[in-house]
Design a protein that fits this description.
Layout (H helix, E strand, L loop, with lengths): L1 H22 L18 H10 L10 H4 L18 H4 L3 H6 L6 H7 L14 H7 L37 H10 L21 H15 L3 H13 L28 H14 L6 H15 L33 H10 L4 H8 L6 E3 L7 E3 L5 E3 L6 H11 L11 E3 L11 H7 L6 H4 L5 H12 L1 H15 L22
Antiparallel strand pairs: 1-4, 2-3
Helix pairs in contact: 1-7, 6-7, 9-11, 9-12, 10-12, 11-12, 14-18, 14-19, 16-18, 18-19
């Protein structure tokens, strides 16, 4: 029992000496472990605690003379490491073992009780003694330095970092809002929502008024869009007048509806000057032509720029000729990124409008008897007779000014009757009739003839792809002041 008490006292003294050495406080020679119970041995251990208030003379010589006799290496290492395993049990007994020195440690332990010392639980009085001499910053692990880092100015430093970032944000938003268009560089249904919110309403009113006066306007606008998008993309290049422009090519001489686009442009220039492109006006007008005749309302993306190039030499290489086969049309569509389904669907645009007799004259021939007969034997005989009578003048020749409805019996309404007529041999153009002579395209024709809803759904998707061909944005084009000529 005495041996255990001696070990505890020795351990307590070692902790006292190590802490005093780390703090730079003078300490007396540790007592010999052979005299644990004697009351005379305890006062030297208790004096170091009271040295702080007793006499200031031992402080200067003691910090450097004390570490020399303290031979145990525990003085250099942190106090909790060596005694940690045995220190937990002797902690409460060391304070109670020397009865004579009890009052001295109580006075020393009371002032530094506010400083938490979790690292040295075995000897709370000695650790609290080491906290007062915190003036010597020799040891970074001293508990006396703990209150200093707590109010450190580290938390206020992060707030100033984000403060410089907000200034550039408003400047960027200003640059984005400065252009006339809301989202430059890309197409969007809400492209003009800020710069010209009434653009769609204005175009629709112009198309409706023109169609009321001339029922052929919807078909003309839709045909004009096809001829524009397949040459140089949807950039209104077909609207430019002048020698050698697309408009002068024979395939475009029969186009109509230019006055409607010009009227819409003049209206929009009065409402939103230099904002809405002619190419967007043409796309909206063709979309509205379908809607006003009973077709689906197709949401279209806007933000196109008007092209700067319009050459008649580019027309024939890109436009669909009325004498094309399915394979020839498929190749032309594939070159634009369109499919066979797109070919059949967009051919359904012939459900409105009319065609000149000269555009399908190759479908007839004069036989040995001098009679005009269809070249294609699959053409409905009654329908062929109607076309011959409609296109023949008194002298038996075809008139270049005579027109015939593309969709017999339903040319003023956008519906699926066109596909039903194809299956009945009543396709007006050769490009219409060949769609039922190919197994793949015929299956699509049959599906659309059965379901108008299916045709409308496919039309919406194909029309969106058509109006995205060769679109020019930002610096690739311009917003024309007049649709018939380039700015300059």
């Amino acid at each position: 029992m005495d041996q255990m008490r001696r070990q505890r006292i020795v351990l307590c003294l070692v902790l006292v000496s190590s802490v005093l050495a780390l703090a730079g406080v003078a300490s007396s020679q540790p007592p010999s472990p052979s005299k644990p119970p004697s009351p005379s041995a305890t006062p030297p251990a208790a004096r170091p605690p009271s040295q702080r208030a007793a006499t200031p003379t031992p402080k200067p010589p003691s910090p450097r003379a004390a570490p020399k006799p303290l031979s145990p290496p525990t003085a250099t290492a942190p106090s909790p490491r060596p005694p940690s395993p045995p220190a937990t049990s002797p902690a409460p007994k060391t304070s109670s073992s020397p009865p004579s020195a009890a009052p001295a440690p109580r006075q020393a332990s009371s002032p530094p009780a506010a400083t938490p010392t979790p690292r040295t639980p075995p000897s709370p009085p000695t650790l609290r003694l080491s906290s007062p001499p915190a003036a010597t910053p020799a040891t970074k692990s001293s508990p006396s330095t703990s209150p200093a880092p707590r109010p450190s100015p580290r938390p206020p430093t992060p707030p100033p970092a984000p403060k410089p970032s907000p200034p550039p944000a408003p400047t960027r938003s200003k640059t984005n809002s400065s252009p006339a268009t809301s989202s430059p560089g890309q197409l969007s249904p809400s492209f003009y929502s800020l710069s010209c919110p009434s653009v769609e309403l204005a175009v629709r009113d112009v198309v409706r008024s023109a169609s009321t006066l001339d029922p052929t306007i919807p078909g003309k606008l839709l045909r004009m869009l096809f001829h524009d998008c397949f040459v140089e993309g949807c950039d209104a290049s077909v609207l430019i007048q002048g020698s050698g422009t697309e408009r002068t090519d024979p395939a475009n001489l029969s186009l109509g509806g230019f006055n409607v686009i010009d009227s819409a442009k003049r209206l929009l220039e009065a409402i939103c000057p230099a904002t809405v492109s002619c190419s967007d006006i043409l796309v909206l007008a063709a979309r509205d032509a379908v809607t006003l005749t009973g077709g689906p309302l197709v949401p279209v993306a806007l933000g196109r720029r008007d092209g700067l190039v319009s050459l008649a030499s580019n027309v024939r290489a890109n436009i669909i000729d009325t004498g094309f086969s399915v394979d020839a049309m498929a190749r032309s569509f594939a070159a634009k990124g369109l499919t066979l389904d797109d070919l059949v669907t967009l051919s359904g645009g012939h459900t409105i409008g009319s065609a000149h007799c000269t555009t399908f004259g190759e479908r007839f021939r004069v036989d040995s008897n001098g009679s005009t007969v269809p070249v294609d034997e699959a053409m409905n005989a009654d329908y062929a007779g109607e076309l011959i009578r409609a296109c023949s003048a008194v002298n038996g020749t075809v008139s270049s000014s005579t027109t015939v409805d593309c969709d017999e019996g339903s040319a003023s309404r956008f519906d699926n009757t066109y596909f039903a007529n194809l299956l009945d041999g009543r396709g007006l153009l050769r490009t219409d009739a060949v769609l039922v002579q190919n197994a793949t395209t015929r299956a699509t024709v049959e599906a659309f003839a059965r379901s108008e809803e299916s045709f409308f759904a496919s039309w919406s998707a194909s029309f969106a792809r058509l109006t995205s061909l060769g679109v020019k944005i930002a610096a690739e084009g311009e917003v024309r002041r007049s649709c018939s000529r380039v700015n300059g």
